[in-house]
Design goal:
The protein has a two-stranded antiparallel ribbon. Strands 3-4 form a two-stranded parallel sheet. The chain starts with about 20 loop residues before the first helix and ends in a 7-residue tail after the last strand. It has two helices and four strands; from the N terminus they run H-E-E-E-H-E. Strand 3, helix 2 and strand 4 form a beta-alpha-beta unit. The protein has about 100 residues and is α+β, with helices and mostly antiparallel strands.
Length: about 100
């Protein structure tokens, strides 16, 4: 399990980690349930989960050099995907400084 640095506590992020037993791991392989995405040159495994769209109350966007573009793109995606309850008021930018 990974814990975020205390500087990110305002994000109130919840991470769920499920290691699974050997039977679960075999089912994942058989059904091709395990997905992968690239993040900064690293392949990250994940499982897709479903939830009610209405359960999402807000989104906090991580630090980026292009805050406005990030927010605009996310707003378009949310509208396209039917998250009608989300708008500029509940999509916020992180206040953590961007550092390289």
């Amino acid at each position: 399990i990974r814990f975020k640095h205390v500087a990110f506590k305002e994000e109130r992020e919840v991470r769920i980690v499920y290691r699974g037993d050997s039977e679960f791991k075999e089912r994942i392989k058989e059904k091709d349930l395990l997905k992968f995405r690239e993040m900064n040159g690293i392949m990250v495994p994940y499982l897709e989960v479903t939830f009610e769209k209405e359960s999402v109350e807000g989104i906090l966007i991580s630090p980026t050099q292009k805050d406005e573009l990030a927010q605009e793109g996310l707003l378009r995606l949310l509208e396209y995907k039917g998250y009608v309850q989300l708008n500029r008021e509940n999509i916020m930018m992180s206040q953590i400084p961007l550092r390289y």
